[in-house]
Design a protein that fits this description.
About 35% of the residues lie in helices and about 25% in strands. By secondary structure, the chain is an alpha/beta fold. It has one domain: P-loop containing nucleotide triphosphate hydrolases (Rossmann fold), CATH 3.40.50.300. The N and C termini lie close together (about 10 Å).
Length: about 130
């Protein structure tokens, strides 16, 4: 239960960034589809807690990922960590602590780009346990 509360807090931080910064790109990487469903549940609760009605354009869920699009061009994606995740560009990431370190170093970390004017968000990579 404590892990879910911590995850909830991290998701709220990501949603707030998406609401504050135009075209902000955030991602949550999980190690399995089962965890993806749990994160989506927490995400829906976080959106309700922040009262984002009218700011969330759509929430889409398809095989292996879920995305939330905001009215200012920002988005938050929840993705199962696989090789085909390469090529995305994001400003901030929440990463499941069970994801392999080599995968993290070779695939996920190269996706991080600075937000406007080459400024990095202080905690661009955050880890969670579920």
């Amino acid at each position: 239960m404590e892990h879910k509360a911590n995850l909830q807090k991290l998701l709220i931080t990501q949603i707030e960034r998406c609401l504050c910064y135009n075209s902000f790109r955030s991602a949550v990487f999980v190690s399995s589809i089962r965890k993806l469903d749990s994160i989506v549940e927490c995400l829906q609760i976080a959106c309700d807690d922040l009262s984002t009605k009218g700011r969330v354009l759509r929430i889409r869920k398809s095989n292996g990922k879920c995305s939330v699009e905001f009215d200012n061009g920002s988005f938050l994606e929840i993705i199962t960590a696989r090789e085909n995740s390469k090529g995305k560009r994001i400003h901030c990431a929440l990463i499941d602590d069970t994801i392999d370190k080599d995968f993290l170093d070779c695939v996920l970390k190269p996706m991080l780009i600075p937000y406007i004017d080459k400024k990095y968000i202080n905690d661009a990579i955050l880890y969670f346990h579920l």
